[in-house]
Design a protein that fits this description.
The chain has 89 residues and is an alpha+beta fold. It contains two helices and four strands; from the N terminus they run ββαββα. A two-stranded antiparallel ribbon has the order 1-2. A hairpin with a 7-residue loop joins strand 1 and strand 2.
């Protein structure tokens, strides 16, 4: 419930507990955008995208996972890992 600021009654103070904000959503959007851009760029160049774990080609954009370290994986290969299995980042 909004309440008035004591020093300046024209300002409304919002109680953080009353707001249900997902602060991770913008981060997810940016990560998905970068992942898709990387996929498009590699496919335009005719490069194959290989899973760094099973070493087979990733042929489906929805199965593709790009970690912040830059390593590519099948989503099912990397789901169990908390960090990149190659560089541990």
């Amino acid at each position: 419930m909004p309440r008035r600021n004591n020093r300046n009654p024209n300002l409304i103070v919002l109680d953080e507990m009353s707001m249900d904000i997902d602060y991770q959503e913008p981060i997810r959007v940016v990560k998905d955008y970068l992942k898709n851009q990387m996929w498009d760029l590699k496919k335009e160049k005719g490069e194959n995208i290989e899973c760094s774990i099973c070493l087979s080609e990733i042929d489906c954009r929805n199965c593709y996972s790009l970690l912040t370290c830059g390593h590519s994986f099948h989503l099912c290969c990397v789901l169990k890992c908390k960090n990149c299995p190659l560089c541990r980042n």
